[in-house]
Amino acid sequence: SRGLGDVYKRQGPGSSIASITPERLMSQRWSPEAKQLEELRELGFAAANVVPSRGIIRGQSAFVTLGDASPGASLLQLDFSRGTAQHIAFEIPGTEVWPPPRDGAFPSSLMGVIAAIRQAFFDAQWWSDAQSAFVQNPRTSPRVPFNTALQALQPALLHQPVFVEPGSILMVDRARRLASELGWKTTVIVASGDEWRRPDLIQPRTTVYIVPLAFPALPKFPQEDGWEDVALESLRAWDWAPENPALLRRQDATIALTTYGLTDRKEFRKNLLTALDRGLSETDALAALTSIPARFCQLDSLLGTLEPGKIANLTICDSRGYFDAEGKVLSVWVDGRPYEVSPSSPNRVAPEASTKSAEALAAKAKADQKKASLREFARQRLAREPLAGRGILTNPPTLLIRGATLWTCSDRGILTNASLLVRNGRIEAVGTVSVTGPVHEIDGTGLHLTPGLIDAHSHSMILGSVNEATLPSTAMVRIGDVVNSETDTIHQQLAGGLTIANLLHGSANPIGGQNQVIKLREGAPPEDLKFTNAPAGIKFALGENVKQSGWGDKFTTRFPQTRMGVPTFFANRFTAAQHYAAEAKQWRAQGGNGPPPRRDLELEAIAEILAGERLIHCHSYRQDEILAFLRTMESFGVRVATLQHILEGYKVADEIAQHGAGASAFADWWAYKYEVIDAIPYAGSLMRTRGVTVSFNSDSDDHARRLNLEAAKAVKYGETPAEEALKFVTLNPAKQLGIDRW
Questions:
Q1: Which of 704, 304, 667 is CA-nearest to residue 504?
Q2: Residue 235's Cα: distance from chain center in Å?
Q3: What is the maximal distance between C-alpha atoms in the chain?
């Protein structure tokens, strides 16, 4: 249950991020209204866990009984210094009504939210270690600044449950992985309601679930043909949602049920009956309302079962029982005190009732019959499973394609009437092939076969915003946290021959977020899309985007504001990363005595660039900025992997080749804004002739479906040989991403 009077204004030292308030205690804000207590008792509830409702790391819930005792007397906690659980939500600040964030405040994206959570828990661990060292040796250990937020996270590092609201099934998987990474001892997931989309991600052994019974409402239309415009996904969601609790149980997940998410709590029992109709057993439902929530809140020694010595919280129903549509809750006992529940009585018709009353009763009976008929119909799910029809078509251990024209993109060139042998997913032979034993053979006569196409610059398959635009350096955010395996774009781009994509952060900051190279394994979950052999990378950017000249006065508050400020900012952050790496090295050289230096995820990523462990992919347009950027990176001993877009790269092609950077260009986008007024479609061909490794990228969901035709434009503009043009979308982007050995 969400708490009452949940208004919070932090005072004193805490997190620098306004939406991170782990110190918030709902026990200090529990101020119920009698009417709301009565509403919950009418549903049969005798106790509830009151949770904070706003922010990212929101604070600690309070477990309360629902009688008429004073707020202090109704609190049921074994340790008043902390709450029931620490609550976290993958919610972007500003999407809730309160508190209004400052314009441009970090984080403003889903990947930024996850980065903020990760950093907060790393800081909490560092704060604990540093504080312990100071207490043990205050004369030689540095004094640790007091911080209410980091102090409040200490129980979650040790034993306090962490309740997480991920918001979607893909983020449920991310929450589970984050819990493992950060060492949470007990993680309870608030189900998103769409677990039915990816039952393979439920993972009951590592997570348990609180399941809302808020189901999408069936749409209503004035005319029957209104259904024609309803999307298939909306219909599928409406049909599957009531089955979500039963599906979780079929996957052996432990669940509790909640009123959370309902705009009208009176819908709770009706929706519960719908869930029962769709496969949830009464035994599981009863446990999900009693013993299991008591266990989640670590109060099962006091509540949840009828046993001697436990608190006398009781729910008393009539003979029909709680799980009958006509069953009534008669009374609820809280701490041994009875509270009568007075449900509305059915209308009674006097003996002298008129014919009109009889007609009304008949109409009611007819309506009840229709209602029962509709309920019976709703018991049947019509929508098929979302994973049906997805995934690989076949997976033979040995595959032979015979008699095709092979564009090898190797030194063997184009082979006609040739064959290709694949064994266990790897190419074993090319050209003249002989094979024995079982083999799946395809006749390639008249067909052309090329390496799978590779897109070196994509923003597809990303959940939420592709930009964390709030800070000039967001090196701590990771596209890998928000890979979207459920978008139709994967299927569409596969249909155009694309097999690998480099998912990049946007170009809003000089130093953006970490990229993620994926294979388009349609039907696989997010983690299985990742090309794990690909070297780590990061997005940088130059030009108008990062100096914010087109953002409007409301947003132009961030350094740098000029082109000359951009290389200065790079030098600033690289110098800071050098100091950060040196401090860590010194600590290791001293045998790791004392607490380690604070882990800074932003500087850690930049230090990986300096160590040659992370590749830079830099958005770039103008020749002057390109040269300034390359010289700045060279001053730190860093080789740039790719210059992205590179509209004026043809002007400085010799310098790019000398540096060793690749050029990932547009095929024929030019002059679409003044910053690229000198762009020409011949740029790719010209840079290739000067010795630059050139690729053509999409930067577009649409263009990614036809990269072969994008590559063909290099033949038209500059007469690049067709075989070399194909390398623009196969071998060359593989080289730029460091994956050409595979």
A1: 704
A2: 24
A3: 103
- Contact of 585 with 555, CB cutoff 8 Å: no
- Name the strand (E) or helix (H) holding 578: helix 565-589
Say which residue the tokens 């709902």 belong to: 26
Residue among 497, 53, 534 nearest 260 (CA): 53
Comparing CA positions, the residue from 208, 286, 201, 215 lying closest to residue 244 is 215
Burial class (CB in 10 A: 0-12, 13-18, 19+), 563: middle
d(CA 707, CA 310): 68
Q: What torsion do the CA atoms of 589, 593, 595, 600 make, to the nearest 10 degrees?
A: 10
Round to whole Å and give the CA distance between 359 and 73: 53
Instruction: Determine the distance from the C-alpha atom of residue 389 to the mean position of all C-alpha atoms in its chain, rounded to a whole number.
Output: 24
Instruction: Name the DSSP class of 209.
Output: E
- In this structure, what token pair is assigned to residue 177? 């992985």
Beta-carbon contacts of residue 27 (< 8 Å; ≥ 6 apart):
60, 62, 75, 77, 80, 83
Between the CA of residue 19 and those of 28, 102, 425, what are the distances in Å?
A: 19, 11, 47
SS3 162: strand
Residues with Cβ within 8 Å of 53's Cβ and at least 6 positions away in sequence, in order, are: 2, 3, 6, 96
The residue behind tokens 């002057």 is: 624
**DSSP-derived 3-state class of residue 256:** strand
Q: What is the mean pLDDT of each run of 10 residues along the chain (742 residues)?
A: 52 87 94 92 97 95 95 88 95 60 78 98 95 87 91 95 96 96 95 94 88 90 89 90 96 96 94 96 98 97 96 96 94 96 53 66 82 84 87 91 97 96 95 90 97 98 94 97 96 97 97 98 96 98 89 74 95 98 93 87 98 98 97 98 97 98 95 92 98 97 96 98 98 98 96
Where are the alpha helices (H) located in 297-408, listed in sequence order?
A: 355-378
Cis omega before residue 721 (within 30°)?
no
Element (H, E) at 569: helix 565-589
**DSSP label at residue 20:** B
**CA–CA distance, 716 with 336 (Å, rounded to integer):** 85
How far is it, in rounded angstroms, from Cα 642 to Cα 640? Answer: 6
Burial-class residue 220 by CB neighbours within 10 Å (0-12, 13-18, 19+).
exposed
Please name the amino acid found at residue 599.
R
Which strand (E) or helix (H) includes residue 707?
helix 707-716
| Structure-token pair, residue 612 | 């040659």
Q: Give the pLDDT confidence score for residue 492 in this predicted structure.
A: 96
- Would you list the DSSP string of 78-120? S-TTS-S-EEEE---TTSSSSSPPPTTPSP-SHHHHHHHHHHH
Residue with tokens 């210094």: 81
Amino acid at 461: M
What are the structure tokens assigned to 519, written together? 């294979």
- pTM (predicted TM-score): 0.93
Instruction: Tell me the two tokens of residue 355.
Output: 């014919």
- 489's tokens: 């774009």
Asked if 150 contacts 123 with a C-beta cutoff of 8 angstroms, the reply is yes
Q: Beta partners for 414?
A: 407
Q: Is 463 helix (H, G, I), strand (E, B) or coil?
A: coil
Helices 110-136 & 169-182 angle (0-180, nearest 10): 20
Dihedral sign of CA atoms 141, 146, 151, 157 in order: negative
Contact between 583 and 599 under an 8 Å Cβ cutoff? The reply is: no
- Within 10 angstroms of residue 506's Cβ, the number of other Cβ atoms is 20
Q: Amino acid identity, residue 444?
A: G
> From CA 2, how far away is CA 19, in angstroms rounded?
17
